[in-house]
Design goal:
The structure is a single chain. The protein has a five-stranded mixed beta sheet with strand order 1-2-5-3-4, covered by helices on one side. The protein is an alpha/beta fold and 259 residues long. The longest helix has 15 residues. The chain has ten helices and five strands. 43% of the residues lie in helices and 7% in strands. It is globular and about 50 Å long. The N terminus is likely disordered.
Length: 259
């Protein structure tokens, strides 16, 4: 069980749209990572791992709906300065909150040049994070591997880059085909459009958000996965290098794949 008065509310399958999104009004990219086929045709279990944009906007009016999802653990991948700036998920009773920041260079140090290949730019940023953020990525995936932490939700600001990497690595370990992994990543483009529209109406004084922050081209994630495997031999080998144990890799498969 999760926390709160779950007996009064349920997240209906009918309420989850074709893009796996779970309707929480103050979020734009909250969705179930389950449902894809993994090793031996076993499906990734629904209702165990979710991904989201920042949860600091959740209000009291969404407390029961969030409780109905049953989340036990929130894994916040934002920088401590981002948490300080925007706040964190409300401290609902029974909810475990972990702020884990995979170290990486701020994108402003290497801005995207207008007209340059966006997928290549994003894949390079992801490769940089995978190189410098090993400890944080290993800690996040180690938490996801713990069945007692589920259901868990992993998030960053937009829920597409840092969150996208953690979810892609997790799905790869579960044996999900690359086509499904990159398609799941690409769903964040539609979510970013909703977020951009919200910004325009709610905070009209905010300057235009740079394109890399709003777009998730499937090619970017495919390049990242291909080059990670070229460098380490496999996603599992990379995660072992990062510090994820064989026991944790096995635990991921045990509790996130259907029997």
């Amino acid at each position: 069980m999760g926390f709160g008065p779950t007996g009064r509310y349920r997240v209906s399958v009918d309420a989850i749209d074709d893009n796996r999104r779970i309707p929480l009004p103050s979020t734009f990219n909250f969705r179930d990572v389950g449902g894809y086929l993994g090793h031996d045709g076993r499906a990734v279990r629904r209702g165990r791992l979710y991904r989201s944009d920042s949860l600091h906007r959740l209000g009291e009016q969404e407390r029961d709906a969030f409780a109905a999802i049953g989340i036990r653990t929130v894994i916040d991948l934002r920088r401590p300065t981002e948490v300080e700036r925007d706040g964190r998920v409300p401290a609902y009773p029974g909810l475990t909150y972990r702020n884990i920041h995979p170290e990486h260079e701020d994108w402003s140090a290497t801005p995207h040049e207008k007209g340059a290949d966006l997928a290549r730019y994003l894949a390079d940023r992801y490769a940089d994070l995978a190189q410098t953020g090993t400890a944080g990525l290993a800690e996040a995936i180690g938490l996801i591997a713990g069945s007692s932490n589920a259901p868990a939700v992993v998030h960053c600001v937009a829920g597409k880059d840092r969150t996208g990497i953690v979810c892609a690595l997790t799905l790869a370990v579960l044996g999900v085909d690359d086509a499904d992994i990159v398609a799941d990543y690409a769903l964040s483009t539609e979510a970013s459009a909703r977020f951009s529209a919200w910004l325009a109406t709610t905070l009209p004084h905010v300057v235009d958000v740079p394109e890399p922050f709003l777009t998730s081209p499937a090619e970017a994630m495919q390049i990242f996965l291909d080059e990670l495997r070229e460098g380490y031999g496999s996603v599992e080998a990379y995660l072992r290098h990062a510090g994820v144990t064989d026991e944790q890799l096995a635990a991921l498969r045990d509790h996130l794949l259907d029997a």
